[in-house]
């Protein structure tokens, strides 16, 4: 078991954005939600430490996505104060700042682990900036629908109509899912995740870069047989 974990690339799931979004939807202030960030990051770091103690050598840890660009967040009522929105992306500044704070703190804590476990190969996946590529230039990547629209936004049917239950919903999918960034208001479409995945595996959006890190890992394995 230890040998299997040590020879595997372990991908941790994105953690924290749901907690922040749910709190904001429940009426918590942005300032209050920001106080949750250290606790969320602490939980992620605890899991990373546990994996290393179990024998993990290569772990890919993603940061948080720019949730200020999610249709569910954009549909919250913040009036028409243009200063709250990014002129280029249309995303809400304050919500993205929570994700940025989360990511900055996570990277700092990962650096501490690297010092404690120099033999571990920890990669930070910068999915925030990987995603900002298509939020800044959606049409360049084939996303012809507005950022604020989701392919299947069923959550809003439930939220604004108390007489409707999950069992009453008749799902109607959009005709061209690949032209949308968001699937349901908080999750991205397959097309969006493909761009993020390629950016992580072949581009500059992992720290250290994924290709060079895996190459070094492969060289270490080969050297052990020489």
UniProtKB/TrEMBL annotation:
Domain of life: Eukaryota
A Pfam family that the UniProt record links to this protein: Lipase_GDSL
Keywords associated with the record: Glycoprotein
Record-level Gene Ontology MF annotations: hydrolase activity, acting on ester bonds
Family to which this protein belongs: Belongs to the 'GDSL' lipolytic enzyme family.
Name of protein: SGNH hydrolase-type esterase domain-containing protein
Protein species of origin: Lactuca sativa (Garden lettuce)
């Amino acid at each position: 078991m230890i040998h299997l974990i040590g020879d595997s690339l372990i991908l941790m799931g994105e953690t924290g954005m749901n907690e922040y979004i749910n709190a904001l939807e429940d009426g918590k202030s942005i300032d209050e939600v920001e106080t949750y960030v250290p606790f969320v990051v602490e939980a992620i770091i605890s899991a990373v430490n546990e994996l290393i103690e179990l024998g993990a050598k290569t772990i890919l840890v993603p940061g948080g996505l720019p949730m200020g660009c999610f249709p569910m967040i954009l549909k919250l009522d913040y009036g028409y104060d243009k200063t709250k929105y990014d002129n280029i992306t249309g995303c809400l500044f304050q919500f993205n700042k929570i994700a940025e704070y989360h990511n900055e703190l996570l990277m700092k804590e990962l650096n501490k682990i690297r010092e404690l476990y120099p033999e571990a190969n920890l990669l930070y996946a910068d999915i925030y900036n990987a995603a900002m590529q298509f939020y800044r230039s959606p049409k360049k990547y084939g996303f012809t629908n507005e950022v604020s629209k989701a392919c299947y936004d069923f959550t809003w049917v439930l939220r604004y109509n108390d007489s409707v239950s999950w069992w009453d919903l008749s799902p109607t999918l959009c005709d061209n899912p690949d032209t949308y960034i968001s699937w349901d208001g908080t999750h991205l479409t397959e097309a969006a995740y493909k761009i993020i995945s390629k950016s992580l595996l072949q581009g500059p959006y992992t720290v250290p870069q994924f290709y060079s890190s895996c190459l070094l890992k492969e060289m270490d394995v080969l050297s052990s047989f020489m």
